[in-house]
Design a protein that fits this description.
By secondary structure, the protein is mainly alpha-helical. It is built from 16 helices and no strands. It is rod-shaped, with a radius of gyration of 32 Å.
Amino acid sequence: MGKGQLIDHLKEASSDGRLTIYMYQKWQRVHGGAPVVELLEKYGSWSNVLREAGLEQQMPRFTKKEMIQMLREAAKEHDSFSSADYRKWAMANDAPTLTEVVIQFGSWKVAMIEANVKSVISLDQKCEIIQSLLDATEELHPLTSTAYARWAKQNQRPSITKVVRRFGSWSQALEEIGISTRELFTEMQMMEALNEAEQEVESLSPWGYEVWQKEMGNRPTLKDIQQMFGSFDVAVKEMRQTVNQRKGG
């Protein structure tokens, strides 16, 4: 078969200038012509076959593996990831267009599943938050939720809302990096918090302190105090003794 005839066959077999091995094989079985294997043996690859027929412009610019990698890279830059987000990212990063992705995978949903984007986003966000918490421990003493919230805003790090959403609570986030909330406050700071609470609540009970602490934030929790002193009553007793000693001094 001459080159001209081969090119004619390939173009006839193509659909809108696009021709896969499968498409050509279906056409060849009906119309005859060189078998796929013969073309591959002669030209070395299907890409070379398409190039010979002048159809190389219809070859995918990116492999499926490359598309998956780029989808994951794009996902890491967004808190939530939609096709619209990807379209903008692709335009700015010379990546496969949304249309190319859909053609490759069949749909946007399938592309997200095959690239395992949800897991990638989740893991990447968790790593970013953990690193931010570690960085914050170097600058904030104590590392409280209120102090972190200010620090995160100033340094463009994951917000306290994202931290709590990802780990369930501020204390659980700290536990993830091996910090007990009890370690954030000294014994004196806990007594000062108890003294402050006693001035503002009608009756300084465990329940009353807990309500006050949640409203105030950035104060030792009831659990912190109980772990430090053994019990809430002992903590209150020591606080009052310390306050009285200061007044007497």
